[in-house]
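A quick word before the example. In earlier lectures we treated sequence and structure as two separate objects. From today on, think of them as two lines of the same record. Here is DUF1707 domain-containing protein written that way.
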Amino acid sequence: MNEVPSPDLRIGDSERESALSALGEHLSAGRLDVDEYGDRSARVAAARTRGELAEVFADLPEPHPVFGTPPPAPAKAVQPKPPGAVAYSDRPLSQRVSAAMMPVLFAGAIVLGITTGIWWFIALPFLFGAFAQGIWGKDWDKDRRERDRRRHRS
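And the structure line, produced from the sequence above:
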């Protein structure tokens, strides 16, 4: 470490984290054994000034702690959508078509029931919905699982 800027200046948590990270790299490179790493880590935790922190790294090559700049923020993890929340546009075309046909069929059944006097036609949209779920429902679940697997891989 060349010259420490303002060795009497107090340090904060970000400088201690930077120093501990640098010590970890020295440990993984084999420059420090586990006991010496523990001793130096304790000195880093107890250090109050830049000079005290620089003494820990006096006999070590780079990397050294970074003074005055906070460590980079960790990348935000992408939170997956809840399993029940699926956008309408993510649904398969067959399911969107059958959903769009339901109100039309229901209105048609009401008109047919009123004009002919046969009210059981009102059940046709519900029967169609059950039929559509039986035909296309399992494919939709399979498509959703495949899409979720692709998202998790990337």
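Notice the following. DSSP finds five helices and no strands in the chain. We will return to this example when we discuss secondary structure assignment.
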